[in-house]
Automatic annotation (TrEMBL):
Name of the protein this chain belongs to: PI3R6 kinase
GO molecular function: 1-phosphatidylinositol-3-kinase regulator activity
A cellular component annotation (GO) from this entry: phosphatidylinositol 3-kinase complex, class IB
Lineage: Eukaryota, Metazoa, Chordata, Craniata, Vertebrata
GO terms of biological process kind: G protein-coupled receptor signaling pathway
One Pfam short name: PI3K_1B_p101
InterPro entries according to UniProt: PIK3R5/6
PANTHER family: PHOSPHATIDYLINOSITOL 3-KINASE REGULATORY SUBUNIT, PHOSPHOINOSITIDE 3-KINASE REGULATORY SUBUNIT 6
């Protein structure tokens, strides 16, 4: 009906709901799967985001028709980080909340909810879920699910893992084939099903028909954002867990003093950004090989002592993590070189290395108002700068951002932006996302006031039974189905002081910049004969020059002068305006923040062509502005 009528905005919410139900369904008829697949192909004729979502779901349904149960299996394996060679992908949800923005009751309720969601997340239980769901999806009503569950429950964990690997191998092999036969896939799972039940006595009870298999809650960790580099630390530990280290206690201490310039000193995958030449001699003349014209002769003790002196060199700063090779072991993934170094010789070609695979996906969920997004923009900019100098996370990690607006207590509004008069003004980004994506407005923006109410509700006596995990379920649905990003421009602000002794101060922000200034003597008070150009009152004289873009796409500079006690500047999403504010004691410049990798490549290009003002070479194809993508269900619906 949405397709036939003029209700195009209902298509994406209905399609998300249908796909989520198909993933969890015990068995999908080929006729239903074919109808949904044909509908997704029709979406390819529509503009974005309809064609993008239609293409994604059409590819998934094609795999599901060939290998039933593949979508459920892959989701559980990646979300629970189950060990599987055919499908080695891992995902984790990081919930970050600022304790200065949210009350203690809200933080405690969210922590309790996420911890309760881990009750049914044991690896053994998740492997049993995959086996039962995949077998039933392939065999349909011919699967005695009760007998299969009872048999798996009585097995030792090693045997359960063996059959789990067999099922995963069968599904992934079928899904990887170009012209796979569904009949052969069903026969293979039938043999696995018969082998599992071979040692159990046959039962006389009739088959109970199709039964649903629970979809485990994803792996969620809750973090109070108390450190500036906490996001980067958690991402590094996600790829390189402390459990894989021989010295976890030392690592936890060293991580506090971790500096990106000193890491990866032994990681060959990052040598592409290194310009230094490795010297293999010790720097001691005694260790140098004898020259051809100099015959070798034994030396006296005095002569030997006089030759033992150090040659001039550069003193290397020792890294606190160098002793444990923190990131060297983390580089030993698919496509990485072995840990042992092989010295390169002239004339001997080196073996090409396979490209690194992004086997890890970190889904960052931000809880709070627009202020926590400003903090995210600063952390993301810092992360991109680190990756520009020494790449490590980028080739291995798929980073996704999500935003759940939550308002704090009424008393916390006083510590907010001076321009904000209501909690709604602190959630302008969420309001913008709700206008761009109606499904985000219905599912996520409703949590803005609901989470604080749930946190203040009295706990029931049966709360330990985990009967209702509303917040976790909504966040799980959001991160699973919200894959369309809405990009926000990150802005850079630079403050120049009148005193040449003070270095310029730099920072970044996302949607709003607030600055408070001290009172100063106005120009009228200093020179009474001077014509009055600003208002009298407390504060400082302020001159703002900005570039205004009109409908004809012509830009013109506009200036205005005033006297104020502070400055509040709001940025419209995807705006590229430049603002320069001249204060009595300093000047403030605001412009779109550039991508750090673009700046680095640009500087390298300028070394060889100083006269080039335009982007040339590789710089032309690199993203220039730093954009912060926040995932929604549909992106921006045209």
């Amino acid at each position: 009906q949405a397709e036939r009528g003029d209700y195009r905005h209902y298509i994406i919410p209905l399609l998300h709901t249908l796909m989520y139900a198909l993933i969890k369904a015990p068995c999908i008829s080929d006729e239903l799967c074919s109808r949904v697949y044909d509908f997704c192909k029709k979406l390819l004729t529509l503009p974005k985001p309809f064609c993008t979502i239609g293409l994604d779901y059409a590819a998934r349904l094609k795999m599901e028709r060939t290998a039933p149960g593949m979508l459920y299996q892959r989701m559980v394996i990646s979300e629970q980080s189950l060990r599987s060679d055919p499908y080695p992908y891992q995902e984790k949800i990081f919930i970050f909340a600022d304790p200065e923005l949210l009350s203690e009751a809200i933080c405690k309720a969210l922590l309790t909810d996420t911890e309760a969601a881990r009750v049914s997340q044991s690896p053994r239980a998740c492997m049993c879920f995959v086996i039962t769901h995949t077998v039933q999806a392939a065999l349909g009503e011919g699967c005695d699910l009760s007998a299969l569950r009872m048999r798996l429950q009585g097995m030792p964990s090693s045997e359960v893992e063996h059959w789990f690997q067999e099922v995963v191998m069968a599904v992934e092999c079928t899904g990887s084939q170009v012209a796979a036969d569904r009949g052969q896939h069903v026969e293979r799972l039938q043999s696995i099903y018969s082998a599992i039940l071979s040692s159990s006595p046959p039962g006389d009870a009739p088959l109970e028909g199709l039964q649903g298999t629970p979809l485990p809650n994803p792996n969620i960790s809750f973090h109070l954002w108390t450190e500036d580099d906490q996001l980067w630390k958690e991402l590094v530990l996600f790829i390189r867990p402390l459990s894989q280290s021989c010295e976890p206690d030392r690592l936890s201490q060293d991580l506090d003093n971790f500096e990106i310039q000193d890491i990866i000193s032994d990681c060959e995958c990052c040598e592409q950004t290194r310009f230094s030449v490795l010297s293999t001699d010790s720097g001691i003349e005694r260790d140098l090989p004898p020259s051809a014209e100099e015959p070798f002769a034994p030396c006296s003790a005095d002569t030997e002592q006089s030759r033992l002196h150090r040659k001039g060199g550069i003193k290397k700063k020792p890294s606190p993590l160098e002793s444990v090779a923190f990131l060297q072991t983390g580089c030993n993934g698919p496509g990485a070189k072995p840990a042992a170094k092989v010295q390169r010789r002239v004339g001997i070609p080196t073996e090409p290395t396979a490209p690194l695979l992004r086997l890890h996906t970190a889904r960052i969920v931000l809880l709070g108002d627009d202020r926590i997004l400003g903090r995210l923009a600063q952390a993301y900019h810092s992360l991109r700068k680190r990756e520009t100098r020494r790449v490590f996370l980028t080739p291995r990690l798929n980073l996704q951002f999500y935003y759940v607006p939550v308002t704090g207590q009424p008393g916390m509004l006083a510590a907010a932006s001076p321009s904000a008069t209501s909690p709604e003004e602190l959630c302008e980004v969420a309001a913008y996302l709700g206008r761009a994506d109606p499904w985000y407005e219905s599912n996520i923006n409703t949590l803005c006031h609901m989470i604080p109410k749930l946190a203040t509700m009295p706990s029931s006596p049966s709360k330990h039974l985990v009967t209702d995990l509303f917040i976790t379920d909504v966040i799980a649905y959001y991160v699973r189905m919200g894959a369309q990003p809405v990009c926000f421009q990150v802005y850079a602000v630079k403050v120049f002081f009148s005193s040449s002794a003070q270095e310029p101060a730099e920072d970044v922000f996302l949607t709003e910049l607030c600055a408070q200034v001290q009172d100063s003597i106005s120009a009228r008070e200093v020179n009474p004969t001077k014509k009055k150009t600003t208002l009298d009152g407390p504060g400082i004289d302020l001159t703002v020059t900005y570039r205004k873009v009109v409908v004809s796409d012509r830009a013109k500079e506009v200036s205005l002068s005033l006297r104020s006690t502070g400055l509040s500047m709001k940025a419209i999403p995807a705006n590229t305006a430049e603002v320069i504010a001249f204060l009595s004691s300093c000047s403030l410049e605001v412009s779109p923040c550039l991508e750090p990798s673009y700046c680095l490549q640009k500087s390298r290009t300028m070394k060889f062509s100083l006269q080039e003002a335009e982007d040339v070479g590789l710089v032309k194809y690199m993203p220039k502005s730093l954009l912060l993508p926040i995932n929604t269900f549909a992106g921006v619906i045209q």
